[in-house]
Write a structure and sequence with these properties.
Order of helices and strands: HEEHHEHEEH
Shape: globular
Distance between the termini: 39 Å
Structural class: alpha/beta
Strand order of the largest sheet: 2-1-3-4-5
Number of helices: 5
Helix content: 40-55%
Oligomer: single chain
Number of strands: 5
Radius of gyration: 14 Å
């Protein structure tokens, strides 16, 4: 199973690189149903002048449009970095079954690092979380992006 996850995460890393190439924080995400990608995206808040244009939100919008449904049961989100509170809320409302992420986001991660938003008992939807898939590659992309930015 982990090899299968790694192949999807490599695709998410390619999306994250597209974000970095555009000067955006390098996060990439895709939503898979069965063996099909139904939505994907990378961070674009700067280039789109949209504070909600996180990779996860873009992938959710595309997947919902492709499925003609705002709810996406039976799907898995692959994302390079642990989602923030906005994205976790959207993933819960979108009924994503599983979130697989590469590296933790120690400052604002809303699944494990700073809070466990998906485990709050007032939500009627629960998501599975898998962490650490290609963690080193995901961390390195983020670290190198900010190192180059500071230089």
């Amino acid at each position: 199973m982990i090899e299968h996850y790694e192949s999807w995460m490599k695709r998410a890393l390619n999306l994250a690189q597209q974000a970095a190439d555009a000067g955006e924080v390098p996060v990439g995400a895709l939503i898979v149903k069965g063996d099909e990608v139904i939505g994907e995206g990378f961070n674009k808040p700067i280039t789109s002048n949209d504070p909600t244009a996180h990779a996860e939100i873009i992938a959710l919008r595309e997947a919902a449009s492709n499925q003609n449904n705002y709810r996406l049961p039976g799907t898995t989100l692959f994302v390079t970095i642990e989602p923030c509170t906005m994205c976790v809320g959207a993933l819960i409302h979108g009924r994503i079954d599983t979130v697989v992420f590469g590296a933790r986001e120690p400052r604002a991660g809303a699944l494990l690092s700073k809070m466990q938003l998906h485990l709050q008992d007032h939500y009627n939807h629960k998501m599975n979380v898998v962490e650490g898939v290609l963690e080193n590659e995901c961390s390195a992309l983020m670290r190198n992006f900010f190192k180059a930015r500071r230089a």
